[in-house]
Amino acid sequence: MWVASFKGLYRFDGHRFQKISTNYDSFGSLIRFYEGNQAENFVLDYCGAIYFIRNDSMFSYQGNSTIRALYRSYGYFDVSYEDEAYYFSYHSSGYKIVNKAEVTPPS
Question: Which CA distances in Å does 94 have to 13, 14, 58, 65, 76?
C-alpha cells in the first residue's frame, strides 16, 4: 500500500511503513499516487509536479518547471499517462498534453 502525504511518500509492506527517499529533490506536499500500468508509478505534489518512483527513491520529471507554470495559470482536476505523455485536465482551459516538457493541445 502507498501513502502520499504532506511529509513525503510511504510504502506499507504489511508490517511496517518505509519512507521513500527523495534523492535530495525538493517537492511540495504530495497529494496523489498513481500506479502506472505501462509506465512506472508516480506521485504529484500540490503544484502538479511529477515524481517517479523507482525502487525506493523518487526522481523529478524533466518537465516539472513547465507543469508548475501551467498549474499556476490554470489549476488542474486530474492527470493521466498514456503513450509516453501526461494528460492534464485543467479547470479553465480543458486539457493539455505534456511530453518531454513540451506542451501541446489535444489533436
Answer: 38, 40, 29, 20, 9
